[in-house]
Structure formats: C-alpha cells, structure tokens
Specification:
Strand order of the largest sheet: 1-2-3-4
Distance between the termini: 46 Å
Structural class: alpha+beta
Helix content: 10-25%
Shape: globular
Number of strands: 7
Number of helices: 4
Radius of gyration: 16 Å
Length: 155
C-alpha cells in the first residue's frame, strides 16, 4: 500500500498497488475481491472518487458514506439495529486514513471516525448507491426526519 503526495490542497489522492501477484479470493463463494487502484478525496465536492481493479469507478458523497458507515454506532451490534442518521446533508470529510491493506478509516467533519470501510464494503456502496440512497430517503420520510441539520438554538 502506498500513498501518493497530495496533488492540490483541495484533492488528495492515494494510489494502491498490489504487492502480491496472486488475486485474493473472497471467502464467500470464491469470487475475487476487488481492491482500489485510486482513492481521491474531493474536498470541494465533499466526496470520495474511488477506482477499483475491476474497472469500476464511483463517486461517493460524504453524506452517503456517513449515513452508511460500517461503525457499530450506525449499524448497531446485530441484525435490525441499524440507526437512521439524519441531519448530515452538509457533512464533509476531513481525511482518509489507510487501515492495513484492506480498508480506510474516514474522518468526517462531524468528528465521526469509528467506521472502517473495507474494500468490499466501499465497492458494494458504489454498486448499490442508487438503491441504498432511495431507501435512506424513504426511511427519513417515514420517520419524519430530515437530511438538514436541526436549527441551532438561539439562531
């Protein structure tokens, strides 16, 4: 795993190079695990632009990544415990930190930093983005919640 130097103050790019010559296999069904070839933090757009070794590329908004965080705070500790995270329309990403050769930790500007985003999870978020986002919006509406943060007291 190697990270390239930042290209600009607004964008930060990490390039990931495979050290082994053998393709890693997923333990579920024996399918090949995808790995990123590039992760670019697009600060102005509040998004991650991720290219994978299978040729796919996704631009994942910070708000989407935050509300789909793999952390226990969001996902809960068991089936059916996922929390609906509201009020994150304007959330940004402060930094992206490598975690071994298998994931990144995303630090958001609301100071959430406990989710470890594995390569398969990030790829799945890209593939399922449209359906997951629609389900999230429907869940917010059903619970009377909003993407907008609550108004500040005294404002």
């Amino acid at each position: 795993l190697s990270a390239a130097a930042p290209r600009t103050a607004a964008d930060h790019t990490c390039r990931f190079h495979r050290r082994d010559k053998h393709r890693k296999m997923n333990s579920v069904g024996g399918s090949r695990m995808v790995t990123p070839t590039e992760i670019r933090l697009k600060r102005a757009e509040k998004a991650l632009d991720i290219a994978f070794d299978d040729g796919s590329r996704f631009v994942l908004p910070a708000e989407y990544l935050r509300v789909e965080s793999p952390s226990a705070e969001v996902q809960g500790h068991g089936p059916g415990q996922k929390v609906t995270v509201a009020g994150r329309r304007h959330v940004g990403i402060l930094r992206v930190e490598p975690v071994g050769n298998y994931a990144v930790r995303i630090v958001f500007d609301d100071l959430h930093d406990t989710g470890i985003y594995g390569w398969d999870h990030l790829h799945r978020l890209g593939v399922e983005q449209e359906a997951r986002w629609a389900a999230y919006l429907a869940e917010l509406a059903a619970k009377g919640l909003s993407r907008d943060p609550p108004p500040r007291r005294g404002a």
